[in-house]
Amino acid sequence: MKAPQNPTLAEVGEQAAINVIAAHAPSPRNGDDAAVLDHDAPNSRTVVTTDMLVEGRHFRLDWSTPAEIGRKAITQNFADVEAMGARPIAALLALSVPAHTRLEFVSELARGIGDRVGDYGAELVGGDITDGDAVVVSVTAVGQLGGSLAELRLDQARPGQILVASGEIGASAAGLALLRRFGRDGVPREFLPLVSSHCAARVSEGRGFVARSAGVSAMTDNSDGLVADTTTIARRSNVSINLDPAAIAPSPLMRQAAEVLEADAWEWVLSGGEDHTLLGTTFRAAPTGFRVIGSVDHRSEGEVLLDGRAPSWNKGWNSFA
Amino acid sequence: MKAPQNPTLAEVGEQAAINVIAAHAPSPRNGDDAAVLDHDAPNSRTVVTTDMLVEGRHFRLDWSTPAEIGRKAITQNFADVEAMGARPIAALLALSVPAHTRLEFVSELARGIGDRVGDYGAELVGGDITDGDAVVVSVTAVGQLGGSLAELRLDQARPGQILVASGEIGASAAGLALLRRFGRDGVPREFLPLVSSHCAARVSEGRGFVARSAGVSAMTDNSDGLVADTTTIARRSNVSINLDPAAIAPSPLMRQAAEVLEADAWEWVLSGGEDHTLLGTTFRAAPTGFRVIGSVDHRSEGEVLLDGRAPSWNKGWNSFA
User: In which pathway does it act (chains A, B) (predicted)?
Assistant: First the structure.
């Protein structure tokens, strides 16, 4: 008889699952009823946010590897911390998985999480794992906002500022369109970078912290779509934002993919979302790692314009729609 | 034509759901990419924990009202904060619900959450809502540990201490057994307090904070079962714990329910869990709101004993089992 090579959670139980998670994402703060986090400095503050990924809605198990799902869950939560100008320091993972799930799935998911929190110099400090019909990955991110500078809020854009961005725009939506047409195994090799951008967005670590130090006043991340997310800043700040088409034009690879799919690459850029691009406004020069993609004006009829006109694509992500 | 009286999330969309949540659990910190929490004092620390409730596993929609589910989600998360000796100050809610769910369900769930965070003087500071096949309620709790006293850890029980408890023990399991036999509508009226204990455990607020001030050194909450949870303290602290049968004996109501169900009320007391009773160890007198239920000894063969003998019921909750 062979020993079980690839056991399920029903076979090994909850503690084995907790052990593989802790092996890939260890922390001395983990393992009590709750984790205790020290504060760096007398006037530091704590930033918290949560985002839930549901199988079939936010990822598909035949499109994403478990490690990519783990990376994506951390990236999108930490992007919200960075969008406040804070430094991500910790994450908590609440995970629902069916009992027939392989332990290896949990291990690989934890590897993606552990790698990604490590990229930021952060830790997975706690969590919960439970039986459930679908895979649901709920992450809470904790960040530290050091010093007395204000946090980067949605309502702090001012006329006369430039709009700056760090990260890709539209690549995630292009990857999703390719997966829908071809499935993971059928996507032409040259387009795999776009698929990667969808399954686990590439975002540089620490750019929000840099932006706050460098004079950015308002910031968010592109999670629901470029027009949708900049519209949120524009409405909250009571300004207009004018996007520069030359600065956000689809990349050659995206244009090539659009040709194959007979799609409009501008839809991916303007409505796509899930790139987690950091979008900020500032009176000063673009901080290191950012490029200028538009300008902030006094409020006009349209809240977000593309070269002075209403953009052709302006829908964003909406659950239940 | 009548206006829709009881719309679904598919009809009203994500923003309407966010609005009813914010109406029942408002906070000025909510509404940006992440919430910013101030620190009370230079040497305060932050405590974080997360727990996920899955429909069909942790609650049933035909047994619990949405408000009870909300209360339960907060109570069990805040109990983990209290078990560190910290004061709960904030919660985050990540919620998955099917699109056919009534907006009223979300509103009632949020009412239960808002009431319960209010009991603690805390706030719901952020969240995420998404479409999903099952109702999944994932809460993260944030607490504040003021001053320089140590947190209440699992490994801080010492021989010669007493074991103290705040809250009911076994009532939740009794309520669950009644629901399994009779369903919510069929439970005899006299047993409804036990059903309430199951659907939304009653726990006094602030007892963990009191315990830390009053000399308790180790603490946890009874979530998996009295023997299972005290065994965790015993193992981590390398001690034995002897439970006093007279102090934890089933209540008259529990004994009455056990008679009707032909069950053993001691199983509910020793293995039940989900009461979120705070369990602590101290060399000093029981703090206000606590009673003595046992003693801590040098390590012996059994980690947790009942009047010096191995308890007849010692299984605890295990997902995937």
Answer: Cofactor biosynthesis; thiamine diphosphate biosynthesis; thiamine diphosphate from thiamine phosphate: step 1/1
Query: Contact, A304 vs A248, CB < 8 A?
Result: no
- Interface check for B35 against chain A (CB to CB < 8 A): the answer is yes
Exposed/middle/buried for residue A252 (C-beta within 10 Å: 0-12, 13-18, 19+): exposed
The pLDDT of A218-240, averaged and rounded, is 96
Shortest CB distance from B33 goes to which of A31, A39, A80?
A80
For residues B298 and B88, give the distance between their C-alpha atoms in angstroms, rounded to a whole number. Answer: 33
Q: What is the pLDDT of residue B1?
A: 46
Give pLDDT tens digits for B259-310. Answer: 999 999 999 999 999 999 999 999 999 999 999 999 999 988 779 999 999 9
Domains of chain A and CATH, by start: 9-145 (3.30.1330.10), 162-306 (3.90.650.10)
B9 touches chain A (CB under 8 A): yes
Which of A14, A30, A48 would best serve as a mutation to test chain B binding (most B beta carbons within 10 A)? A48
Q: Which residues pair with A128 in a beta bridge?
A: A94
DSSP A40-51: SSTT-EEEEEEE
Q: Which residues of chain B have pLDDT under 70?
A: 1-4, 321
In angstroms, what separates the C-alpha of B190 from chain A's closest C-alpha? Answer: 33
pLDDT attached to residue B152: 97
